[in-house]
Amino acid sequence: MNLLIYKTQSQLLEDLAEYIIKIANKSIEDQNCFNFVLTGGNSPKMLYEMLATTYKTRIDWTKVYFFFGDERNVMPDHESYNGLMAKKAILAPLNIAEDHIFYVNTTLAPEKAAIEYNKAIVKHFDGADLTFDLILLGMGDDAHTASLFPGTDILNNKNVEIDSVFVEKLSTYRISFTAPLINKAKNVAFLVFGENKAVAVKHVIEAPKRNTKLYPAQLIKPIDGNVTWFLDDEAASLLDN
What we know:
globular; 20% strand; 241 residues; six-stranded parallel beta sheet; three-stranded antiparallel beta sheet; Rossmann fold; single chain; 6 helices
């Protein structure tokens, strides 16, 4: 595990952008494509906008395929739909081809949406292992990541797949990568900032005993890949080391 802590959010995002560029270009050099899983919520929006403007010429975007680590069970035109935020912030500004973007079809029932998303990803990998080059993750103040929320059934799913999950605290369904699917990635990066995340960060990174039902982000330990935490001072403020 790599732990990187920054004094400012802008420094964090600049370094994370450089990290993405490095992995993207290495993936394109090695396999002629970059399979990139985006995270939702508000935290990554500025990062996506930076990649689409300041860093636009640093990656051959025609060779990048975009996926979503989780999605809310709302219509694709809803402001909470992760795919819509990404479309506005990075995908449309870069004129990414539609066949290079893998949206979750939330016009379907959650269970069906998960099945169809899984089929689309399996087809894309064309018989190869479902190993993404980079998965971006955020983390909530309850230590959830993707849509792996504390106490939910998806935490028990040992399959490398997409699954639907009912999140009781939100009274809604989500569609999400399972932890085993995330853990097959070559690289995983957590983007976490803000004082409200400090307690969760401390529990996930420094807890003497694992309690993945309470702190689901503890489940993320890539089998053959790397995990890097990009934290600001506030999110890291309770860490002992």
